[in-house]
Design a protein that fits this description.
Blueprint: H1 3-6, E1 12-16, H2 21-25, H3 28-36, E2 40-41, H4 45-53, H5 59-67, H6 72-96, E3 105-109, H7 118-132, E4 137-142, H8 147-156, E5 161-166, H9 169-188, E6 198-203, H10 205-220, H11 223-232, H12 236-251, H13 254-261, E7 268-273, H14 286-289, E8 296-300, H15 302-311, H16 322-331, H17 339-372, E9 380-383, H18 388-400, H19 403-408, H20 419-427, H21 434-439, H22 442-454, E10 459-463, H23 470-478, E11 488-491, H24 496-505, E12 511-516, H25 523-540, E13 548-552, H26 557-564, E14 569-572, H27 586-594, H28 599-612, H29 623-636, E15 641-645, H30 653-665, E16 673-675, E17 690-697, H31 703-714, E18 719-724, H32 730-748, H33 758-775, E19 786-788, E20 791-795, H34 801-810, E21 818-823, H35 829-846, E22 849-854, H36 863-868, E23 873-879, H37 895-912, E24 916-921, H38 926-936
Parallel strand pairs: 1-8, 2-3, 3-4, 4-5, 5-6, 6-7, 7-8, 10-11, 10-12, 12-13, 13-14, 15-16, 15-17, 17-18, 21-22, 21-23, 23-24
Antiparallel strand pairs: 9-18, 19-20, 20-24
Helix pairs in contact: 4-17, 5-6, 5-17, 5-28, 6-17, 7-8, 8-9, 9-12, 10-11, 12-16, 18-29, 22-27, 23-27, 23-30, 28-32, 29-32, 30-32, 33-37, 35-38
Length: 941
Amino acid sequence: MNPLVDIRQFDQSLWLDFISRPIIIDGKLQHRISDEALRGVTSNPAIFAKSIGDTTDYDSAIKALALQGKTTDEIYTNLAVSDVQAATDLFRPLYDGPDHGSDGYVSLEVSPELVNDTEGTIAEALALWKAVDRPNVMIKVPATLEGLPAIRRLISEGVNVNVTLIFGLERYRLVAEAFIAGLEDRAKAGEPLARIDSVASFFLSRIDVLIDPMLEKIAAAGGEKGELAQSLVGEVALASAKQAYQIYKEIFSGPRWEALAEKGAPTQRLLWASTGNKNPKYDNLRYVDGLIGPHTVNTVPVETLDLFGKSGKVAVTIEDNLAHAKEVLARLPELGLKLEELTQHLEEDGATKFKEPFAKLMQSIEKKRALAVQDTVDDSKMELGQYQSAVDAQISKFKADNFVAGFWDKKADLWTADEAGQHSIRSYMGWLRVAETMVGRVTEIEQFVHEVRAAGFQHVVVMGMGGSTMAPIVFKSAFEKGENGLPMSVLDTTDPGAVRAIEASIPLADTLFIVASKSGTTAEPLAFGDYFYAKVKEIKGDKAGENFVAITDPGSKFVTDATAASYRHIFLNFPEVGGRFSALTYFGLVPAALYGLPIGEILERAILMMRACGAYGPTDKNPGLEFGAALGVLAQQGRDKLTIVVPDALHDLGLWLEQLIAESTGKEGKGILPVAGEPLGEPGSYGTDRVFVYVGYKGQADEANTAKLQALAAAGHPVITLLMADAFDLGQEFYRWEVATAVASAVFQINPFDQPNVQAAKTATDKLMKAVEADGKLPETEAPAASENGVDYYTTAHGDGAAGVLKAFFAQAKPGDFMCLQAYLTETPAVSASLLALRQRVMQELHLATTSGYGPRFLHSTGQYHKGGPNTGLFIQFTDDNPQDLALPGRSYTFGTFKNAQALGDLQALLDNGRRTLRVNLGNDAEAGLKTLLAALPQLK
């Protein structure tokens, strides 16, 4: 038997007089709802002072809000509203259920400073009601004389009200009258009365705390009065509550009430408050066990709730000893104690007791706010040499044109004069302020993470392409797994060897699979999801969906499919945020949180950069604007190969930057080519098309790169240095680079948010896949230009044997060109080493920029630049015969066939755009085939 559950048979509801973000996140509140029959939560300024002011749990949120320019009052309101929203969402199934019993509410109090301000109370209560935006919130309003008209008005407006600070019976009558009058006002206006719920919170233990010492003093004096006083010690609060219950029964009966009840009005239930015992002489459950009765609520502190669960006595007691209760109240005047005057004192004292901790809380928030706004972003160092004056001129032009204000106002004509293009731009600028939105979603994500851990999951696999997976890859490489995080793998290739490797490395039944697709139609993540869903279903049957999570845009077909497959959770992202700008949305932050990272701190750093970039008003320096102007001007003057240099700890940052920059700028024959993963050489290894950007850490020596960068700057190459304090500054760097990319695109006068050439490869792939479905295989290709030692070379360049073909292909290179390696292969250290060796040969001998990417990953990344940017690329595509092929569930083709079709489709799109291409099929052994190619590679110059 559990008293917490058993008490429901007597129609009393237990609410918890406490709220904090940790109990929402860690599942404790949900546990109390699910397993302990908890039916509501109350809060007050003292509770929030303890939760917010006395802990560090809210510090990241406070800082993020402070950096947005929020006042201390606004910060408090935001934090309180966010917690109440999260709690109301947990109670929503109860509130909406058939057995709600007018429960499922969470209470939020107006400022204690408004205790004697009717109009101020009404205004704030309506503002809080609107801000929380949940039907199961109650707004707490004090039962002062000034509060009574506010109660009536709010009830008439349809606001649920928890009337607080009731100590006396006469005041309780006035509270009930205000409630009924408000319902009558609402009925006259023709508004519905159902589910306009209210409770009258009668405070108990404070009555005894005040009166007992007075009675004990009289008792100590002896005599008849002393004997009477002694008999009343500890009895006044319970007697008041029992008498209040009789008044409740009287008020909510008879013709006046019945007229409202017929229209669906619920009664205003009595709620017993201040029920934690404050006198060690008394039973700690005296204000719980002694007041059980129908249509009542008891809101209790955590300790009292737990104690009642262990030793509570469940029986109807609210009407026990009514005659004695009446006698207690009737005989107080004989002792010179006027209860109405004493309860008026308690009301005034109660307001003070809330004002003092509230003032302390606001002081604490103000202190943290003031510190937050003193923070500055990590500065950049730009060594631009002869290009400095041109960059300065562009920045001056931007300032003269009021570019920053227009940027934050989403004025699309900053990028293009084309009307359709402007509409597209405005549709995809949600990234500008999405970090603000995500600060409010941190609790939701952290709740989900705790749920996943509690369910026993041991691993996470993120499955997607492009912007859906780039940020998780960066987070995984830049951070150690958090203390409570789960190991994470990322699958962003249709290569069957990679799929097999993931499958072999994870405990299938205990792995959470995140299927991430913005559009919900991206072929690769849907294929990954189908494959692993079938594998998990073999183990768990119809419960396979418990292992799957979707991240996608609202309204996508994937939402329907994931719902039908009973996915554990579906995170709906933001349609106005493009994939490559989504690092600070659910796509990046859900995996990061599962990996154990404090995502609130990452967002806090991002908002610091937003502030520096003018999001909240003019700034002396604008790091995003200055960086973007430099990149744009340098590219216009021929320095369009942005060479990214990072320490080993940030080796995967280049993957994210490649997509952001190439897909945003590579169109209309223009663009900036990001070059990642290319080891630094001596100044003589480079042409005059380079700009070098180093992203590293302050205080961490990276002598090899630093010395070479100094030499490059001395030789006249532009060098830009960005140093982070720690990995959490990735939040600010993601944002800096996003702003800079958009600004550089404005220099080019192009739309940074579309990808007009990406579809070409998809269309070509779709055509090939239709042929596969019809014929069971891919169409035959043309004969190779050379075949040697099991390696086939396909190109329009002619030569004698492998060496001759390679020589002829590279003979097409011109200054300012670049080489792009496209490896539709299983990613292994040996394959990556061979690709790097080829890049180094070309860079040293031809002084070309070199890039390398595994397919089909780069199709969703740099693929746009390859087809839409300047025609300066030499593209070498590597394929193999997929020796580790895998069948795809529900499809007539394999992963390997799908991958090869993507390779051939992209090759066709390159050819259709007049690009110079060489396809090399490496046979059954890609590692051996690459070594064969390197051995055949002649001197290139």
